Amino acid sequence: MTRASADVHPPLTIDQQVALHTAATRLAVEFDGSYGTETIEKFLHHSYDQFATVATISHHLPLLAERFARQRLHALARVEGHHRDGRPVVLFLCTHNAGRSQMALGFLTHLAGDRAIAWSGGSEPGTEINPRAIAAMSERGIDISQEFPKPWTDEVVRAADVVVTMGCGDACPVFPGTRYENWTVDDPAGLDLVDVRPIRDEIERRVRRLLDDLTVTTTR
């Protein structure tokens, strides 16, 4: 189902079990008519396992798992034909899903609004978003501080109309029939804010060109 594999992690606490049960209930309501309890719980717990192996703050895990499972279920619904609304889906991939792909996601969401869908992922997800990337985007009025590094999964890649890769090389997934673009953009990891700004601006230019190519109207 995904490139990343889950390692053994500590047993769930009572609070975590309750939080995951509540999340499963919300997802069941949201995807009623498309997926049953078994599928939803499988995606939710698998998503939880992926974050539990690298997380530093465990009390956030159920929320992250719910958000990731929701994205994956939406992707699966698109792949299986349960949901098609005509909006293009763009998936941004880099190595750690902590800088470049998150900034690209932020720009596309900001510029396109609800006229396109942006997802992101990494071949080796980090543990947090690069604070310099957050600061650089904040200067443009875009908040990516609530995003989180996540792995790519097969259903998410298959649901994308365009997959943009930035530095993940051979680790990036390839599915026949999917449009791919490789953007040569410097990695902001370890750089000061002044050096991240040109990377941010280059990503914005590329996102604007992509939206224009997809005939998606921007409001900014």
TrEMBL record:
Signal peptide: none
Keywords: Arsenical resistance
Pfam families attached to this UniProt entry: LMWPc (PF01451), Phosphatase-like_N (PF21234)
Domain Phosphotyrosine protein phosphatase I: from-to ranges: 88-213
GO biological process: one example: response to arsenic-containing substance
NCBIfam families: MSMEG_6209_Nter
Protein name: Protein-tyrosine-phosphatase
Organism: Micromonospora nigra
Lineage: Bacteria, Bacillati, Actinomycetota, Actinomycetes, Micromonosporales
